[in-house]
Amino acid sequence: MLEEKDLQAIAQLMEKQKQEIMSETKGLLSQQKQEILDETTQRMKVLLDTEVTPKFNLLAENQKIMLDKLAPKSELEELRSEVSVLKLAIRSINQEIAELKKAQ
Description:
Blueprint: H1 4-69, H2 73-103
């Protein structure tokens, strides 16, 4: 039959084995977490390279095309000035027409 000392020795051995198993399990879990993180990071990089970056490049390219098609600011100012002059001329002509109609 087993004595108290034997039972304590067995308990100590079991505790030691338990600690070793727990330590090894923690190490394996930590390694697995790192592998999952590395794989996820790699997938994100691939997604950015294949999906996001080309779309941003296309967007930037289209924006450049649109900006190139826009009239320069100086040309726009010149057109505004011409429109103002034409508006004044039209008002003057309309006023003259109105006066001529009254004179008839």
